[in-house]
Amino acid sequence: MARFVAVEELFKGRHFDQEIVVVCVRWYLSFKLSYRDLVAMMGERGVDLAHTTILRWVQHYTPEFEQRWKRFARSVGGSWRMDETYVKVHGAWVYLYRAVDKQGLTVDFYLSRNRDVEAAKQFLRKAVKNQRVPTKITLDAYAASHRAVREMQEDGELPCRVKVRSSQYLNNLVEQDHRRVKQRIRAMVGLKSFEAAVVTIRGIELAEKIRKRQFKTGKLGGRTARVPEIWQAALAA
Questions:
Q1: What is the dihedral of CA 66, 230, 54, 183, to 10 degrees?
Q2: What's the CA gap between 3 and 25, in Å, rounded?
Q3: Where in the chain is the domain with CATH 3.30.420.10?
Q4: Which of helix, strand or coil describes residue 70?
Q5: Which residue among 48, 121, 134, 136 sits deepest, i.e. has the most Cβ atoms within 10 Å of its Cβ?
Q6: Which residues pair with 138 in a beta bridge?
Q7: Exposure string (b/e) for 62-85, b if CB count within 10 Å is 16 or more?
Q8: Of 85, 115, 79, 113, nearest to 98 (Cα)?
Q9: Would you tell me which CATH number, out of the four given (2.60.40.420, 3.90.79.20, 3.30.420.10, 1.10.10.10), belongs to the domain 79-192?
Q10: Whole-angstrom Cα distance, residue 54 to residue 131?
């Protein structure tokens, strides 16, 4: 496994202390806050920030934080519930593909400008690469998703043994899970570009996984450790 640079090097040259950077990024991704909300909160603590500074921190550090947390990830189950929802980016609706397992644990996400067969395939390829080959995939009635799975099985990208089913009742689990992500995005008062939206949603999904205890916290200080201590351990090289 590739080694990361020391956490001190990660923040070298920054005007603000690394604890301030991590707190701002963590709070922004975890709670229903806008950048200006965070500016006001930090101002009450004697830290004078611009909202654009926090924006740059989120975009710069979120991918790095995600990679460092990934080392402690638990495996998800093999029975997936897959669905897509809508989010607005720069005034236009785009499509957010997501999946959870039968326990509600987050499998993966994929943001697409289109809602079609190719988008569903791209999501499944990403999910299988990052997680595992599922044993079951539960879909809604949207034909493109069913066709995507069928064609991937025909092409050998998914094993033919993967069971595909359609059930609105079972898919309620992932539809309810969409709400937490969409509520967080709504508080951000708009995503300005597609690329920035992808990074931001990566961070929101990371925060959701932490909340769902999808990481081995025993290696990060255990259940009694405070959140800042857990984050410090997770980011350490």
A1: 70
A2: 23
A3: 79-192
A4: helix
A5: 134
A6: 81, 165
A7: beebeebbeebeeebbebbbbbbe
A8: 85
A9: 3.30.420.10
A10: 31
User: Which phi and psi angles does 127 have, rounded to 5°?
Assistant: -65, -45
pLDDT reported for residue 237: 66
* 236 CA to centre of own chain: 20
Assign 7 a pLDDT band (cuts: 50, 70, 90): confident
Rounded to two decimals, the pTM is: 0.92
In the prediction, which pLDDT does 13 show?
84
Residue given tokens 């301030």 in the structure block: 20
Contact 80, 136 (CB under 8 A): yes
DSSP 67: H
Is the per-residue pLDDT at 177 higher than 70? yes
